[in-house]
């Protein structure tokens, strides 16, 4: 597998959507299972997590519908058509989910995912990574290596959080 990190993120993204769909199914049932004591919160939390994962997979500023990922609007529209959500709830969720994240856009996330994939699959050394995955526009030095290492640590922390959530 050439892209284990990207594959893990895609699986986590799909899992969050599946959990949201299961919670929506529970909304239509008379007896709600214990794990969906508050299904609307489960739907919202999993949609929010799916959007966060998507930020590691799709470049900032890209239309959300790129690639295999359905847009939030498409997903919520389908759920309204199926009677799983009211139009008001779907609109409120869409508004909340599509709020722009605070701070500077995460422009380096795609290259960070690619760098971690390369580090793990090609067994590259840290000093070799900036040549392919740093876009500073200058001659790459120790600063570039440290920057990339820091970004990869942030991604690894995020991946560990995803793994611990999947186990619970």
Blueprint (SSEs and pairs):
Elements: H1 4-28, H2 39-57, H3 72-81, H4 87-97, H5 109-121, H6 129-133, H7 142-167
Question: Approximately what portion of the residues adopt beta-strand conformation?
Answer: under 5%
Q: Helical element count? A: 7
Output the radius of gyration.
19 Å
Overall helicity = 55-70%
In the residues, how many domains can be counted? 2
Based on Cα principal axes, name the global outline.
elongated
Characteristics:
168 residues, 2 domains, 65% helix, mainly alpha
Task: Describe the overall structure.
This protein has helices spanning 4-28, 39-57, 72-81, 87-97, 109-121, 129-133, 142-167. The protein is mainly α. It has two domains: 4-97, no CATH class; 109-167, no CATH class. The radius of gyration is 19 Å and the shape is elongated. The model has no long low-confidence stretch (mean pLDDT 79).
